[in-house]
Amino acid sequence: MILRDIVTQLDLQVLAGEGALDQEVTGGYIADLLSCVMAGAQPGQLWFTLQTHLNIVAVASLVGVAAIVITEAAAVGPETINRAAGEGVVLLRSAEPTFETVMKLARLL
Amino acid sequence: MTQQFSLFARMGKDLPASVLQELMFELRVSRVMTSTPITISSQQLMEDVKTLMRDHRFSGIPVVDDGELVGIVSVQDLIHAFEEQALDAPVQRFMTPRDRLITVMVEEPVFEALKRLEQTGVGRLLVLDAERHLVGMLTKGDIVAGLLHALEAAYHREEELERQRHPRRFFEALVSDETSLVMRYRVRANDFASGGRASAQLKQALLQMGAAPQLARRVAIATYEAEINLIIHTLDGGYIVAEIRPERIIVVAHDMGPGIANVELARKVGYSTASPLAREMGFGAGMGLTNIERCTDELNIWSAVGVGTRVEMIFNVTEDGARAPVEHS
User: Fold this and answer.
1) Which of A33, B18, B221, B257 has the greatest number of CB atoms lying within 10 Å of its CB?
2) Mutate to test the interface with B, among A47, A51, A62 (most CBs of B within 10 A)
């Protein structure tokens, strides 16, 4: 499924990477431990997390995930947003908790 | 001109004639013609033809009345007008009329246009669309320029494909008994904001050198973990040194302390001495060294308390970038 459609259906806020929404999403990965993400997340997946600091951009970029989805409307600092925009990493935010957000995604995929 | 010469120099004799032939069939007239040429009406004077040809260095100008192509006037026609001292005569008197025009359709292959130019000996073809309206002009010069342009594009495509097929090509051009490239990165303690910079830059460099994406990814993940370790655990940061050889990549992370008391314990999944702050940020899961081990073909850790730590990660370069199968003893 195309990322842009998921953004619409899940009512996600696009914080960065507006220009890269036309990619295919293959699945998802949920973790707040960065090493888990490095080990387990696959290119093309959505990464759901509550972490909002700068390093999530590096991790997302190295793993090649389709987008980072910050859940529970967590506050994201401008440094993280700017870094994501600079590196072409898609940064999304959901107003709902991870479980609800992922349930909706599961119905779509 | 320089560009054209370098193009020929690079292609040398390797370019098969068939590539040129294919291009001449593939390339349409529309891609190489001069669009919307300047025209003149049949009632304008040969004097005007002289001015246009002088100012624009044209050798032929299409004659168009009310949007309809009615002829073409060439340098030869202008010479005739000079000979007859009739520069005040209308274009109509000297032009080649419509029924004798040599034309080509806009979507015909360049090959057809070239054939027509050869057969008729004219200097230019008038390009018509399906409704037989004039849409452009085509000279041999246009065709040569268009072909060169297309060749250049085809050459770059070929070069790119070639590069992707041969990850080691980069090194073949450099001659020595043993060639390697060394990239060095400084990593500062507690500089979480820069975490991942070295590994991202190394990954990018590997991809640019034509490494298989899977290899670049393995190296990037292992290097990232080592980089984060330098940020979280060291007193004074350290260095990441990547040595890239044609057949293997060796990444070394080294620091000046504090050193690991029990390396065996540190390699166990879940074991971590990370600070609460680092854990809060999602580091310190005790998976770093496990991740590194999973991505490398060989991992050597040397450490002494009060001296420092040296983590050596070795990756074999394989065709698909996958980790070499583990040997069972």
Assistant:
1) B221
2) A62
